[in-house]
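re the bet — no i am not wrong, look at it urself. input seq straight from the record:
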Amino acid sequence: MSEEKKEEMVPVTAEYEVVDQVDDQAIVELMTGQTIQDYVYSFKQGGRVVEGLTLAGINEAANRRGGIQVEEMKYEELEHSWIATVKAVDTITGSSRWGAYEQPKMNGSRSDPFAFTKAVHKAQRNAIKQLLPVPVIREVLNFYLNRKVGGGNTQQQPQPQQSSDNITNAQKAAFAIANQLSEPLEKASISKEDLWNYIKRKYSVESRNDMSEQQWTQLAAELKAAETAPKLFDELCNRIKQLTTANEESEVPTVKESDETETYNESETEQGETNSAKF
């Protein structure tokens, strides 16, 4: 299960694009009263078969499992996108997970009338998937792929995951995407120090250890959207530059990052669990 969650947070680009396109279609079908066609996706990439549940498949698995509820939803409208953040709760185990998604308002050259709805549904998808037991996922996946149910994998029991582990996964997602954006941001005259000062201001924190699972999840969604959509990347750059300019004009001192700025990799993310660690 942890492997599936990791792929959800930091997906391979091809898989991310395929799932996104299928789920966009499913949301439109849902909103227009059509019959949803795709519950699973399956394609070859790099010599291996990539399989998983679409948004419709995840909802089907949640219905079969039972006890999973969406208890909290927040959203924010930006100039070119919607950001939705959702909390899902497993009422049977008491576990909860956050999911987030940033959806562009434009679909190609046209305005997307379903942009807000897509942001909300995909945020729900990302939260609910993390709560689904592996056997339930396998059952639905095998059913819709016309395979036999009851293989060895379906007997695998999910291991309980601690909240701190989930926050670490969200940290790794945000750091990994930030690493991918590092070069484009530098070309836009935005340093790592500028990025992390923006994050600190946005979430009112002084250290990465002050950030919650919800905040890390939302940050990962914001950075992923900037990585995949040029217009949203430009919007992120503008927000960072506006904050930097405002800080300079107000002469508000910012923390120097020369000795504190992190390189974005998993080992440093894991070291960030110490109480005094900075960004």
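see?? Residues 61 and 140 are 6 Å apart (CA to CA). told u. also The radius of gyration is 19 Å. so pay up
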